[in-house]
Amino acid sequence: MFTAAVITVSDRSFHGERPDLGGPAVAEALEKAGYTVTHREIVPDEQPLIEETLKHAADQLDIALIVTTGGTGFAPRDVTPEATLAVCDRLVPGIPEAMRAASMAITNRAMLSRSAAGLRGRSLILNLPGSPKGALENLDAVLTALDHGLTMLRGKPMNCAELKD
Predict the structure, then answer these.
(1) For residue range 98-120, what is the model confidence (pLDDT) as tens digits?
(2) What is the count of structural domains for the chain?
(3) Between β-strands 117-120 and 123-128, what pairing exists: parallel, antiparallel or unpaired?
(4) I need a surface site. Which of 24, 26, 48, 110 has the fewest CB within 10 A?
(5) Which residues share a beta bridge with 90?
(6) CA–CA separation, 22 vs 137, rounded Å?
(7) Can you say how many angstroms the Cα of residue 75 is from the centroid of all Cα atoms in its chain?
(8) 10 Å Cβ neighbour count for 100?
(9) What is the pLDDT of residues 47-58, one digit of tens each?
(10) CATH of the domain at 99
(11) Angle, alpha carbons 122-110-90 (nearest 5°)
C-alpha cells in the first residue's frame, strides 16, 4: 500500500491549548484503509510553516498521500488551501469537488469549505476540515478513488482485480 502523512493545522493544538482530535481520527481511518502513516505533525496556522511542512513531507520524506486537517474555513488565519496551492505543481480539483458534493447531503455548510488538492512531485496533498466528524466524512467520500490516483502517480502497475474498482 501507500505511505501517508497527517498534518494538523491548528494554532490552539500547536500551543497545547486544545487536544488534536482530527489528526488522530484521520490517521486511524487511513491505517484502516491500508495506508502506512509514517509522519504526523501539528503546525500553527502560519502559511510559510504549512508550506515548509508540506514540501518536507513530499520532497524529503517522499510520502505518497499528505493529508492536512484544519485551516480550510473562513477565519482570517485559515490559510491551509493557500499553502497547498502554493506548493503544488498541478491541481486536482475533482477531489475537493467530490468532498463538497458528498458533504452537501449532510449539511449545507459544506459549500463553505475551501479545501484544495494537488500534486507535488510524486505526492498527493489533500486538505480536510479540522473537525473529526467533517474530516472523516470528507475523507470517506474520496478514499476509495485515491488508490487508483496514487497508483498512476507513483507508476505502480495495476492488476486486473484493482481495475474492477
Answers:
(1) 999 999 999 999 999 999 999 99
(2) 1
(3) antiparallel
(4) 48
(5) 119
(6) 11
(7) 19
(8) 17
(9) 999 999 999 999
(10) 3.40.980.10
(11) 20
Q: Which residue segment(s) compose the domain that 147 sits in?
A: 3-164
Tens of pLDDT, residues 57-94: 999 999 999 999 999 999 999 999 999 999 999 999 99
Residues 130 and 70: beta-carbon distance below 8 Å? yes
CA torsion angle 94 117 147 62 (round to 10): 160
Residue 124, beta-bridge partner list? 65, 119
Distance CA 122, CA 105 (A): 32
Count of CB atoms within 10 A of residue 19's CB?
10
Edge-to-edge, what's the strand order for the sheet holding 117-120?
Answer: 36-43, 3-9, 65-69, 123-128, 117-120, 90-91
Nearest to 55 by CA among 41, 66, 44: 66
**Contact (Cβ atoms closer than 8 angstroms) between residue 50 and residue 81:** no
